[in-house]
Amino acid sequence: MSKNYPTFADRSKASNEAKAALLSKFKQKTAEPVNEEEQKAKLAEALARSAKRQAAEEARRARVAQEKEQRALEAELKRIEAEEAAKKAAEDAVRAAAEEAERLEILEAEQKARRDLRYAQRKARAGKR
């Protein structure tokens, strides 16, 4: 075959060499001595990040709890306002019904008085004859 088209053996050999290179690179990295100061610094940084993350999570939980409590208070306030509005509406309806009944009584009394007056006037005219 030509150079442009490698054979399976060529491709397999190149693949095996790449794998071996990566494996040796990994082995060299783990074989390097560990710097204790760097390790302690990394551990301290990780602990600091963890503490910061935990503090942020606690702050978020506190904020969420406060918002939940605020929503509950607002809902209670709305419920109380709705009860008061319903009570006021019921009182207004009772008052309006009483006023309407009183108005009808007055109207009836006025109509009766007019009727009685007309009747009396008719009787008075009839008595004159």
Provide a brief overview of the structure.
With 129 residues, this protein is mostly helical. Helix content is 91%, strand content 0%.
Detailed description of the structure:
The chain is an all-alpha fold and 129 residues long. The chain contains 2 helices and no strands. The longest helix has 93 residues, at 36-128. The N and C termini lie far apart (150 Å).
- Give the CA-based shape: rod-shaped
Rounded to an integer in angstroms, the radius of gyration calculated over CA atoms is 49 Å
Low-confidence stretches: none
Helices and strands, in N-to-C order?
Answer: HH
Total strands: the figure is: 0
Structural class: mainly alpha
Mean pLDDT: 91
Could you estimate the helical fraction of the residues in percent?
over 70%
Give the end-to-end Cα distance, rounded to a whole number of Å: 150 Å
Q: Hey, roughly how much beta strand do the residues contain?
A: under 5%
**Largest sheet at a glance?**
none
| Distinct helical segment count | 2
